[in-house]
Design a protein that fits this description.
Helices cover 45% and strands 23% of the residues. It is α/β, with parallel strands linked by helices and 273 residues long. The protein folds into 2 domains: 130 residues, 3-Layer(aba) Sandwich (D-Maltodextrin-Binding Protein, domain 2); 94 residues, D-Maltodextrin-Binding Protein, domain 2, CATH 3.40.190.10.
Length: 273
């Protein structure tokens, strides 16, 4: 009986040790998989998730067939090809996209994201690949607003948490939250707001498509907005930033960035002048 108990005890201890070893191995393997950085995980999946609004022509928008297209779509697609993965696009509202990148739901955001010191604390920026002038737009019959300083006490409209919103607030305007270029122009034409900010190239494109629209450029912001892709902040994104920057440098050298810019904007905005 004692021999049987002893043998059973040894067997149980052996089983526990083996289970413990197996458990240690499993934990080690899990830890190892967690050590993979963002670029490694992207390559493992074979796709990079890219966030954009999809309603801001000619940066990101849907064509007549409903296909997502635009300057940012072509640039980010070319970057993904250089990295060796497939782009997966997710569209949404501006502030939600920013939150999604910060939370790690999206790998990149490509949507004319202008650089600010505040954003640089929350996100990792790629190298800049577009340099954008911002214009102040008013109704064609508005002779009251001629400078940015004239915005004090007025009402503007732009996407929440956009650089355009910050610019309006900087000059003393109350900023109404409107998520699309078309929406901001509608608000302006209806007289519900006094002005709106947007990219010079986007307003040029709008006026080209709708030459009879009763709008005009009242003033230019003197600062040139530097545009880059953003990704989650931290060491986890370091190798992804390196890969994106390398891809952008190659596309610039090949003349591809200039080609894409001229296709959508009719001018080259990919180099700082």
């Amino acid at each position: 009986m004692k021999k049987l108990l002893k043998r059973t005890l040894i067997t149980c201890m052996t089983s526990m040790l083996l289970a413990g070893c197996a458990g240690s191995s499993s934990v080690k393997e899990t830890a190892g998989s967690n050590e993979k950085d963002l670029l490694a995980r992207i390559k493992e999946k074979g796709e990079v998730v890219i966030a954009m609004e999809g309603n801001w022509a000619p940066w990101t928008y849907e064509d007549e067939s409903g296909k997502l297209t635009g300057f940012e779509v072509e640039v980010s697609t070319a970057v993904a090809e250089k990295i060796g993965v497939t782009p997966k696009y997710v569209t949404g509202e501006w502030d939600g996209l920013l939150a999604g990148v910060q939370a790690g739901r999206y790998d990149l955001m490509a949507n004319g994201v202008g650089y600010t010191d505040e954003r640089s604390q929350a996100y990792t920026y790629s190298d800049f690949y577009a340099f954008n002038r911002t214009v102040l737009v008013v109704r064609g019959d508005n002779d009251e607003i001629k400078t940015l300083e004239d915005l004090k006490g007025k009402v503007t409209c732009n996407s929440a948490n956009s650089t355009y919103q910050l610019l309006g607030e900087k000059y003393g305007a109350t900023v109404k939250d409107v998520e699309s270029l078309a929406g901001t122009i509608d608000e302006l034409l209806a007289g519900r707001v006094d002005a709106t900010f947007n990219a010079e190239v986007s307003i040029n494109d709008y006026m080209k498509e709708k030459p009879d629209a009763n709008i005009k450029v009242a003033a230019y912001d003197t600062d040139i907005e530097k545009v880059g892709m953003i990704m989650p902040q931290g060491k986890d994104s370091a190798s992804l930033k390196e890969a994106v920057d390398k891809a952008l440098a190659e596309l610039r050298k090949e003349g591809k960035l200039k080609e894409i810019s001229e296709k959508y904007f009719g001018m080259d905005i990919t180099s700082e002048k």
